[in-house]
Amino acid sequence: MSSTDLEVKKSQLAELIELAKADGQVDAHEAVLVKNVAMHLGIAPEEFTKVVANPDMVMFRRSYDEMENRKRFYQALMMMQMDLKTHPEELSFCQELGLKLGLESSKVNRALKVLVEQGGTLEFDAFSTLMD
Description:
The protein has helices at 3-21, 28-41, 45-53, 66-80, 88-100, 105-117, 124-131. By secondary structure, the chain is mainly alpha-helical.
């Protein structure tokens, strides 16, 4: 894995950790998702420990691949719904993240609106349609 790829992956992990903390507490489901994402991304245990300890110290990096950024945004939306509640801080975080990832503002807002209207459920295919 190149150092650039690792930095993008650490950034992705850090934002999920920050999002999990946005409502003031990290529940067990959120913690499991963070660990699973780290494993899926191939982040070594020592890097995982560093990012968990100081997620705010990880510089934001986005992928050059738009589809990867869409998946990353979707992953954040799913993290937001792990505790079955939608907090204003989480919505704000996800909106800002979508924009930082280079996604169109109208599409980010539409995805957030649909997610809230559907009570926290949004299948990836439906999400993809919203983002096209």
